[in-house]
Each structure stands twice: as structure tokens, then as C-alpha cells.
């Protein structure tokens, strides 16, 4: 390989990583606009060790606990580091939200203070940040060991995706921007970033991005149509109704739900687009003289084989979080006729079926774009060079 060609290949590989790294640094310092929440002013947050517990005011009623647990704690950080004080853990009778501390536990606490005096200490939950960091670092190390440079790029893509959701998507929703347009823009940006890190800036990336984007648009359009037809309100999303009571009455929760449909399916859409693009590229590399129709048909055959597992993947991804609800229906003997008419079940059906529509459509879209893009110019030149050598020989 000539130096010029080697330089071009390295540039295609390193330029996306460099651009994404710059974007990552920008997103890190970009404020969300919601950092200075009034309810957290005049407070300090830190880790605390539970020295002893007092459950005298805790009321046990079967599985439910209510009342207040008082703990003697030692503050392990913040402006009051080292001080021993009392912390309070309010119990609301909810197994989902309540937590019980015991001696030796580590807790995340919020300290309400005035000058140098502690007014009260609220015990938020068990402290898990250190374990979460260890888990993330272990995964990152494992990914790099298995996938090498590709693993490092995947970590960068993952980090940028998290930051785009946290610092761009969510604040835009809260600021009243149209959730569908913002969701499309952010998801398309994630697709471009992820696939550029996989392929670099070349025809394979353009092919995979085109197929993914077309599949995502199909999911978006069908999601909007069937959400309206099924008369689904966005408050069906867990905790979303609380936003309306927190000063955000103008939020269009239904549009947020519509956007969540194609955002949730975009990962599987990208996965299938990459599979088809890579398969078509491999075919073209092995047989440069192949026509775009033959290449597209090869990609379509690969996509057709993958569609069965991908649609099942969506079904398992969405239904996995609803196992408890399904168990409740069965335990109560609820007729299937009733179950399918409940709005929260209908919402799940929309997410699964509409997401599957996007997956099925991305197959032919990506097969067509990869067939058209990967069999032009560069590969035709390879075929012409081969024909020329055969003729001269």
C-alpha cells in the first residue's frame, strides 16, 4: 500500500474519533440550565456511614412499613466531614420507593444547614456511586480487551450518547421544544456519530446512516399515527405526570411518548443497518464485478434472516420491564380481552409493533443504499484493473 493511500485510510479512521472526542469535551462542559435548582440551594450532599439505627417509630403492617427511621451517622465528605449527627429516613409504605438502613451501611444524605449549623439530614438512599463506577470501569476494560480500538470507540460513542440525552434532549424537552423534532435530530446525530466511529467517513457509513435514518422515519410516522388512533396520552409513561405538577403544565407528554417510540427502536435499527452494510461490503470486496442489484439482493437476504431475531429482541426489551404487570393480570384472572384494551398495554403494543415496522423497513432500505453506494467508482475501478491485467496477460 502506498503512503498516500495509507494516509487516506488513517485519516478516515482517526478523523471521526478526533471530532467525536472534541464533541465529548464540549458536551462535558455544556450546562443543562437546570443545575441551580432552588430546592437544593443551601444544602450539601455527601456519603455517610450508619453507626446505629432506631426503629422505634417504624410501624410494620404486613409487608408495608411506615413512619420514620432515625439513624446515627458519620458524615464522610462535604463541609461537615467527620461530624456525627442524626439522619432521618421517612417511610411512605411503598416497597418500591422505601429503603431500610442497618448498622454499617453507607448512605447518600442531603444536609440542610444554616451557616455552620446542621439543621437536618435527609437520608436519600443507599450509597451506590462507588459500585456503579467500578461496574462501568470493569465493562470498559472488558470491552477494550475483547474489541481493542473498536471497543474504545464504542465507549466514546456510548459516553456521547449519554451526554446528548442528558444535556441536549432532556433540557430541550423541558424548555418546550417540539419533542418529535428534537428527538429526530438528536437520534440522527447519535446514529451519525456511532456509525462514523464504526466505519469512518466513507461509503459504508453513508449507506448505514441512510438505511437507519429511513427506518427511523418510518417508525416516527407510524408512531405518531397509531398513538393518535389508539387515543394514548403521554402520561402513560412512568413518573411523567409528576412533571405536570412540578410547573411544566405546558409539556406535551403525548409527543414525548411518540418520540420515545423511535428513540427506543433506534439502537436495534442501527444494529441491523450495520449487519447489512458490512455483509454487502464483504460481498463486493470478494466479487468487485457484482452489479448493484445483486449486491442489494444479497443485503436484503442477510436482513431477512436477521429480522426474525431483531423483532423478538424488541419484544423482549419492552416486555421485560412489564413482567410484574403481566403476573398481576394472570394472578387476578383478567381476561385477555380486557388486558389488550388497557391503555398501558396498548402503549406497549405500539412500541413493539411500530418499532418492528422500523426494523423490517430498514432491511430493504439499507440493502438498497449499500448496493447503490458500495458498487460504484471504487469497486468498478478494481474490476477494471483486474480486467486490464487479464487482457495484458
TrEMBL record:
**Keyword set for this entry?**
Membrane, Transmembrane, Transmembrane helix
Q: Where are the transmembrane segments?
A: 14-34, 129-147, 180-201, 213-236, 256-284, 305-329, 349-376
Alphabetical list of Pfam families matching this protein:
YibE_F (PF07907)
PANTHER family for the chain? MEMBRANE PROTEIN, MEMBRANE PROTEIN-RELATED
Descriptive protein name: YibE/F family protein
